[in-house]
Design goal:
The complex is a heterodimer of chains A (143) and B (246). With 143 residues, chain A is of the alpha+beta class. Chain A is built from four helices and nine strands. In chain A, helix 1 packs antiparallel against helix 2. The longest helix of chain A has 24 residues. Chain B is globular and about 60 Å long. Classes of the chains: A alpha+beta (143), B alpha/beta (246). At the A-B interface, helix 1, helix 2, strand 5 and strand 9 of A face helix 1, helix 2, helix 6 and helix 8 of B.
Chain lengths: 143, 246
Amino acid sequence: MGIETWPDVDLGRRAFQRALWYSAGNLLGDAGSADAGLKLLSFSCSGGSGEAVVRVRRGHVEEARAAIACVGAIEGDPVGIRIRGISGTVRACEERYMRRAAGSSTQRDVAFGDAERPAVVREDAYDVRAGSEYVGAAAFDIE
Amino acid sequence: MYEAVHAYPDGDATVARQAMTAARYGYDGIVVRTRAALESGDGDETGDENAPMTDPAAIADEYGVDVVDAVEIDADGPTAASGAVGNRRADHAVVCVVGGDDRLNRYAVEEPRVDVLARPNAGGGGFNHVLAKAARDNEVHVEFDLGPVLRETGGDRVRALADLRKLREIVTYYDAPHVVSTNAGSHLELRAPRELVAVAAEAGFDPEWIREGLRAWGSIAARNRERLSGDFIEPGVRRGRYETER
């Protein structure tokens, strides 16, 4: 799956796994959570973008999908999560869905709204710093 | 399938960023609930060339998803809401009234000019069979807000789920139209349609019913765009060239 968050958020593997378990436990209950058996196999995240491989028990894919969708925030920071795909083996999964390694991000100043503001740029995505918070913008906004 | 989003300045992401994310997630379009996020011809153009993109057609072209110009009316009472609906109806393809208290919920479902009653359970407001019948007769879509299910935890989420269940029982029994949304305030709060269906299925919703609710935004927008176009006179009657061939 693909993970997205604000660029200043430092997302750790342990925190992510814990969020997955809590989400599954809360949504599916202890029994359902044990059935789904969500386990984080690989995880990488830096500069507001990342990806992860999660193992799920066969036959419990939809429950797991629901639990993963309910991870709205990790340690108070909002995260966007999208399941890119499902495959039977880790290798197939990596070949098919993990191609997009987190694109490198650069910092630069952009004109946004009434002022020049610092922004973290990753491909077409511009996270613009406005005051103490970020605003998600796109290349199309900045041009 | 469409998702109805909040955009900058009301939300934390611009319309373009929401559209970009929605396109990647497999949506056909987004409905922008924030009035100030899109230029809609009602004269609040700031004229600032550095402001985020506000032209729905240009954004739609760039990302290949439909961008629907909508407005969300959040008024203190029916009188104020009524004035706002009258003012905004002619400029926006989708008009939502934020419910939440009993009087606003009642006003919204009894007003045919309103398209969507948004977040009917947000405040202390209730929904009942009288409102459901009115919503059906006036074709006001009742919104099922999955946002709290995705983002809240504990007691708040339990209450949200209980409210959704009750709402679903009433709305399906009286066959009132519905829409489904997560009220995403930023691109991080968006979820792909399949994920929404999976979450809703865990909460006891029928998957097809959820997809129908996501598609309903599109059909509301299509119908109203036709009505707002200059050629529309009344249902079944439109101005144009007569048919030259049969």
